[in-house]
Task: inverse folding
């Protein structure tokens, strides 16, 4: 992965992503990186979880595939309540280099006045908690996804790994068992994928799975919940 060529690609909503030409794969949907992230992870993930837990003052969140930091950035921007705290753990096996990060246009297309936070996300040291704001703490975990081994820790999981076509080992019953084990009772997992094999794997590990309307360019996405 470190030796693969990666380049900047502009998606249909004007926001950038990173492409891997030899894989014919992108970090986000070419139909709109920001639109996809907002739809899948913010609207159907964070906001849904908060609607189900209106009395909670904290969400402990795990992202599988920190990548460009887009999901973390949009989560920070979406958390506009000063008394609601987000603990954000973003796992990434192959960090994106600073040159590519600097070429992304997420700041310009969202909230320029908060640009220092986006930059701080990427300057933060790996495997060390970083207090980016009074209500947002980020820990970037430099690790493979398979090495995750925690129990009933997370309220919400953004499962944003590369697709099963290029990394099938990340979309297995074994991997989703790790995700289910790491979720607290009532916890939620959201992913852009709507493959039947992914839905069945999530169900096999005991999660309740919903098929939801997908972001632009995709008919459906999946949301899975752990019974309370």
Result:
């Amino acid at each position: 992965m470190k030796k693969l060529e990666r380049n900047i690609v502009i998606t249909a909503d004007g926001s950038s992503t990173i492409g891997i030409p030899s894989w014919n794969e992108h970090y986000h949907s070419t139909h709109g990186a920001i639109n996809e992230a907002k739809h899948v992870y913010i609207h159907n993930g964070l906001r849904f979880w908060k609607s189900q837990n209106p009395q909670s003052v904290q969400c402990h969140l795990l992202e599988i595939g920190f990548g460009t930091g887009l999901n973390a950035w949009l989560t920070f921007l979406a958390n506009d309540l000063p008394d609601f705290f987000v603990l954000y753990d973003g796992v990434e096996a192959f960090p994106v280099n600073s040159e590519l990060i600097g070429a992304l246009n997420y700041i310009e297309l969202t909230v320029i006045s908060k640009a220092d936070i986006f930059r701080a996300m990427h300057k933060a040291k790996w495997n060390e908690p970083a207090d980016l704001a009074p209500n947002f703490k980020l820990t970037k975990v430099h690790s493979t996804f398979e090495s995750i081994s925690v129990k009933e820790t997370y309220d919400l999981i953004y499962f944003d790994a590369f697709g099963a076509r290029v990394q099938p080992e990340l979309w297995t019953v074994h991997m989703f068992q790790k995700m289910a084990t790491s979720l607290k009772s009532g916890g939620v997992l959201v992913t852009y994928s709507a493959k039947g094999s992914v839905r069945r794997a999530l169900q096999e590990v005991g999660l309740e799975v919903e098929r939801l309307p997908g972001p632009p360019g995709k008919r459906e996405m999946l949301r899975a919940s752990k019974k309370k």
Observations:
- Residues 33-52 form the longest helix (20 residues).
